[in-house]
């Protein structure tokens, strides 16, 4: 294991007068201890023992490197590309050399221990425990969703322990998660790529953390809590080294970031992408929950903000759903959390489960779309789209509610999708197009009159009340409408076609309102 002068300074046992350290505390490149010789070329990986007068002569040549210097003169300035630890000239160089070699061996043995644990696929917690003699503070790893994967700390009285056994695989409390979501300091830590300090403002003690990334994806955070001894500069490079081993171990063990079986998300995403899925493989995956393909299901699509995605609390929301909605499994999708609910496993009705969901949504200031029930898991894609469309449409037309049931927006969904996917001219009967052209050329409103007449189920009395029009005037207009359009309003299919087109026109902002459209036009 390579060291640096910050680690050397903290772990050698000989007395130090002072130090002059300018290198990056994270970088470690020292591999051996050498003694200075004027004719010998200094290597970047050498920690060199040197006398003060020799170091002064090197200063003039702008030589960089790491040094243990025998002697100190505070009046002399050295270049900032040097790392120097000053000791008294009376110290025995051989004893210093042995002490330094012991320090290198100490960390070399730790590295060997870590690699042995890695080779034996030891639990992550054992890797963390091996670092306690060096870091000397409680260590834990959290998922991006703030679930504790493991913790370890020095044994002491229970009331003095920072963690308890119950904390393993548990999430931070909803109150702590909400506080973190709106904490600017926490938000800024998400993109950190080096060991970083989090202030004591929230928990009363500082935290040194490192974000573990696999293939540049943030998968976990290792945290060290400053509760037993003050942090040292050497803690950062040691934490980074430990994290590199943990990262390899997580990849090697294919460590799950949730409690779903291996391959579960893959096969669900295949269904959502309308790919063919082997039924026997699907049933095997579902069996871990004692589910069957033909059980009764429904989908919940919980909208997650870009904010939640950035600060990685999406998986926490999914876990809250799984914990409170019996018979459910939650997965992260692009803009939503998809919760699949098995009504057979839940032994509750859809309405009973939704009454629980509403409280979760209100507490988290969230909104959700709800699909109708279905009886074939392979049809999951269609019902997930129902849930997504329900929330997209409901959020526009009913902004003040939390939970949007698809059945309340099914007709609106058909109208909106037709409005988005087709030009209005292609949807209109020829007779209606003739009537619209007549209105345009003669400045009439026969199209509007026809629409109101149809919406009142061809009732003359209701139509004239709606239009504030005399009966004779309306009957004359109706006669002209029929002459121009040649539409057979006694035909139920013609009436339905016209009503649908008029609804589409409204959504296209051609007649009445100007609401935002939930589908791309």
From TrEMBL:
Origin: domain of life: Bacteria
Residue ranges of domain PucR C-terminal helix-turn-helix in the record: 447-502
Signal peptide: none
Domain called CdaR GGDEF-like: residue spans: 278-393
InterPro entries named among the record's database cross-references: CdaR-like_regulators, CdaR_GGDEF, PucR_C-HTH_dom, PucR_C-HTH_sf
UniProt record similarity statement: Belongs to the CdaR family.
Protein name: Carbohydrate diacid transcriptional activator CdaR
């Amino acid at each position: 294991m390579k060291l640096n002068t910050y680690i050397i300074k903290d772990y050698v046992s000989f007395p130090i007068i002072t130090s002059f350290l300018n290198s990056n505390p994270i970088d470690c490149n020292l591999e051996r201890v050498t003694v200075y010789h004027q004719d010998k070329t200094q290597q970047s990986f050498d920690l060199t023992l040197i006398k003060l007068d020799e170091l002064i002569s090197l200063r003039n040549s702008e030589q960089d490197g790491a040094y243990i210097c025998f002697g100190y003169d505070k009046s002399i300035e050295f270049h900032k590309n040097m790392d120097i630890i000053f000791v008294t000239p009376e110290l025995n160089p051989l004893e210093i050399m042995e002490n330094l070699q012991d320090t290198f061996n100490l960390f070399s043995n730790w590295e060997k221990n870590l690699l042995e644990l890695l080779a034996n696929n030891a639990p992550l917690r054992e890797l963390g425990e091996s670092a306690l003699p060096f870091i000397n503070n409680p260590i834990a790893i959290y998922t991006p969703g703030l679930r504790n994967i493991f913790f370890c700390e020095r044994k002491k009285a229970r009331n003095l322990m920072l963690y308890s056994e119950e904390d393993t695989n548990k999430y931070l409390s909803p109150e702590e998660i909400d506080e973190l979501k709106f904490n600017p300091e926490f938000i800024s830590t998400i993109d950190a790529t080096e060991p970083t300090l989090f202030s004591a403002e929230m928990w009363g003690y500082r935290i040194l953390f490192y974000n573990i990334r696999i293939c540049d994806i943030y998968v976990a955070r290792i945290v060290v809590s400053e509760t037993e001894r003050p942090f040292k500069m050497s803690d950062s490079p040691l934490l980074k080294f430990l994290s590199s081993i943990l990262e390899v171990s997580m990849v090697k063990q294919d460590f799950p970031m949730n409690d779903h079986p291996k391959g579960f998300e893959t096969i669900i995403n295949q269904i959502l992408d309308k790919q063919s899925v082997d039924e026997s493989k699907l049933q095997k995956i579902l069996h871990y929950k004692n589910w069957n393909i033909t059980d009764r299901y429904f989908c919940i699509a919980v909208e997650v903000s870009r904010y939640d995605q950035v600060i990685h609390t999406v998986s926490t929301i999914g876990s809250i759903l799984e914990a409170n909605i019996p018979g459910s499994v939650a997965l992260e999708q692009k803009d939503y959390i998809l919760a699949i609910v098995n009504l057979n496993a839940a032994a509750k009705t859809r309405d009973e489960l939704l009454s629980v969901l509403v409280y979760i949504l209100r507490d988290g200031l969230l909104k959700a779309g709800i699909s109708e029930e279905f009886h074939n898991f392979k049809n999951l894609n269609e019902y997930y789209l129902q849930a997504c469309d329900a929330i997209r449409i409901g959020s526009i037309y009913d902004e003040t509610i939390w939970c949007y049931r698809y059945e309340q927006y099914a007709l609106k969904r058909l109208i909106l999708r037709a409005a988005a996917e087709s030009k209005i001219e292609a949807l209109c009967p020829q007779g209606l197009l003739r009537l619209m052209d007549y209105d345009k050329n003669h400045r009439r409103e026969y199209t509007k009159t026809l629409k109101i007449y149809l919406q009142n189920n061809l009732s003359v009395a209701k139509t004239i009340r709606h239009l504030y029009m005399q009966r004779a005037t309306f009957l004359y207009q109706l006669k002209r409408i029929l002459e121009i359009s040649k539409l057979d309003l006694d035909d139920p299919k013609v009436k339905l076609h016209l009503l649908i087109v008029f609804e589409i026109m409204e959504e296209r902002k051609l007649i009445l309102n100007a609401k935002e459209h939930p589908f791309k036009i």
